[in-house]
Amino acid sequence: MARKSGEENRRNVLEVATRLFYERGIRAVGMDTVVKECGVGNATIYRQFPTKDALATAYVQGRADAWFERMEQAAGESPSPAGKLVAVFEVLAGDTAGASYRGCPMLNTNTEFPEGNHPAHLVSVEHKQQVRDWFHSLAADAGARDPEQLADELLLVLNGAYVTAAVLDGATYGKRALRLARFLIEDACPDS
């Protein structure tokens, strides 16, 4: 059997940690569990991620990057600027309806690490600010009367849906968030 490269080991550790952290929570999963699930030695993991905080931060950054990649792809498929905003909530509705949906990784992380200086906390906060900025840009492109207000409202709907769908019926609340987002977008962008 060929030895895995450092990058292959890093990817494997991050994939396993991503699954475990999302399913159980970052604080609930010890490094020993990650080592066991990866099927590699301690040294292999700690060479890639010297601390659990480093692994947790890489997990959160990976989830943030993946979210933007998926949402930008969905938005890019819409020919209308307002449709780009709606596309985000269409993806959200699909995500929250899934059986494995356990909430927004950023909001979950922020809850687990409320300390303002924890690196995973900082990544989650930066991600939410980037989402708000992206919504503002899309709202301006869609001709919203007040792009800032629409961005704020859509961020509230997005985060509210993510939290509520994790606790109650995800399919129902994902659909309601989509309907509410459509209403807000249509109201704010009457010419689109």
Provide a descriptive summary of the structure in words.
- The protein has nine helices and no strands.
- The chain has helices spanning 6-24, 31-38, 42-48, 52-76, 81-97, 105-112, 119-141, 147-167, 170-188.
- The protein is elongated and about 60 Å long.
Please estimate the helix content. Answer: over 70%
Question: Low-confidence segments, ≥5 residues, pLDDT <50?
Answer: none
The residue-averaged pLDDT reads 94
* Largest sheet, strands/sense/barrel: none
Distance between the termini: 58 Å
- The coarse overall form would be elongated
Quickly give the structural class.
Answer: mainly alpha
List keywords for this structure.
9 helices, mainly alpha, 192 residues
Short note summarizing the structure:
By secondary structure, the chain is an all-alpha fold. The chain contains 9 helices and no strands.
